[in-house]
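Students often ask what a holo structure prediction actually looks like on paper. The answer is less mysterious than it sounds. You provide the chain, you provide the ligand, and the output is a string of discrete structure tokens encoding the 3D arrangement of the protein together with iron/sulfur cluster.
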Amino acid sequence: MSKVLRINMSDLGHKWETLPKKYETLAGRAFTSAVIHNEVDPTCHPLREKNKFVIAPGLLAGTMAPSSGRLSVGGKSPLTGGIKEANAGGLTATRLGYLDLRGVIIEGAPPVETKDWYSIYIGKDTCEVKKTNDYAGMGLYELIGKIWKAYPSKPGIIGCGIAGQRLHKGAGVFGNNVENTDPGRYAGRGGLGAVLGSKRIIAIISDASSGSRPEAKDKDRFEKGRKAFKDALDNHALTGRLNNEKGEPYGALKNYGTNVLQNILNEAGALPTRGFRTGRFEDAAKISGEAVHDLVDKTRKKFGDKAEGKYGHACHPGCVIACSNVVPYEKTGKAHVSPLEYETAWALGTNLGIGVLHDVAEMNRICNDLGLDTIEAGNAIAMFMESGLIDFGDGSAAIELLKNGYHPESAKGALVCSGALTAGETLGVCRIPVVKGQALPAYDPRPIRGIGVTYATTTMGADHTAGYTIAAEIVGIKGKVTDPKAIDKAELSRTFQATTAYIDSTGYCLFIAFCVLDDDSGFNGMLDTVNGFLGKDIDIGEYGMAILKNERAFNKGAGFTAKDDRLPEFFHTEPLPPHNVVFEVSDEEIDAVFKDM
Amino acid sequence: MKIFAKLYATLRKFAPPDNELGEFFEVEFNGATISDLIEQLGFTPEQARIVFVNDSQTSDLSSTLTNRDRVVIFPPVGGG
Ligand code: SF4
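The corresponding structure tokens follow.
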């Protein structure tokens, strides 16, 4: 029987609970959002004792299902003031799966005068809250090395860095990578790193050395589904294997990563450039997934075995899509940062007019070291550029600005760690790209309207992953593309948001969607794994909508109304070149997405 | 006629070796439609998932090209 671990940071105690019946089928985002909705006062201060930090592995985490080891973390977001679920790979989800833990709920907070910092160790039927003041105030690359030495069993590690410890709203939750060498697996969004910081927690260490692989209730169905699904993923041109029979690059994500999107959004004229001023960036190709692929090949040729660059890298054990990468230094072939994702390359590159791969990788590394969400940090730097304090395109100035984040006495550093809204308002900027306080990611909503409707209506604040309509509007499903400029997008966004909520709960990575939307055998295989694991059938749409209902109800309780489901004014008034269009979806259409909730 | 083509991701191997990533290369085109161009470049229509002609996305590979058209082709790509 699965368990729930509840830790109280007010008295540093913990207890093990049996999974309540009503949570039987809930995991990942379904679990975090249900607990937040049921247990957290929506009006509470997100950085005080009434908020909770909930950790939940996806349903299938730890099983042999392909690409199923994703982790959800949730809480009331200090960035948006609403509910938040952020999602990442790394080791923690599979470790918690092995420990048969459906969730860890961290509540309370040490008294305000506390100067101590804690870490939590979770093992098979053991939990310890330890004082770890020696983990505080250091960069996360150093911290990972330190924890690794103390726990050689390769545990999952998540936690917060300097930004979270200082309660900055741009702080993400870091996670260690599969090799346990690097803190780059981020559940980045919504400032949840600061929620951990408010509970005086730096690291949560999950050790599954004496756990065991979770088992499906209907093993045959699970196994049949797993095989069919894995074949479908392997053979799809997007999610598939590295090379074809001729040894040529085949699977797009394995070869180029998510940053394969850089060029396509550029060609589509929907790549937000220099603070959402144009839809094309002249240097997009230089920081694209193809450029990283070439750099990896080049450094491999030059440095042979010593080269550390990689593509086709898995973010968690058992991911067959393996879209992650390790960007090498061109001069030495040594690892610079891992991974460089599309959203990050956009936020710290294109969005700032910076087309130098090295500079983008360097800023990504600094964000990872400080414990910052790269999308929020990039948009905050863009506010400094908007205000004229530094110039668009000035990579060295942007790197220096970000480094201020290390210095507790630096107001600029505090600002760059506090998200786009706080930075923009403080600096007198009046075109701030946020919804519900969270900065927009890498798709301009003016020429691609469905994603704009998702940004506006999701409970999360501007978030592309919450309802990734790009799959229909740019990539196409079964060869059919939905016109990105059409304005009737409510149904499209709603369907994507519900389906995404389901996927975020299964442990599957969202990127399986490209394959399952195209290939029916993959879709049915995926369903068989989930239903076979639970030993009963669940309906994707209903399951997803139930999650969204909890989240909407929480946000309503926190004071959100229809007027919060809106894009910033400038998207309606400033046409985006080259297509010279504004966001034309009506408020009625937007409100139709969740008309019944 | 002359067509300017750009290929990305797994299709780049069908571009001339000296073609820079993100730059157009010139094709002396003997056909009429986008499919003809794809064939002339050496791959199949199934490999061409996302096509832009003069900045507009199109899924109709039978549409005809005219002199100096700019054609950008991607295989299935996605992520985010
Ligand atoms: S596809 Fe990429 S992001 Fe998704 S689980 Fe695999 S490596 Fe991680």
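Chain B touches chain A at residues 6, 8-10, 12-13, 20-23, 47, 49-50, 52, 55, 57, 59, 72, 74-80 (CB under 8 Å).
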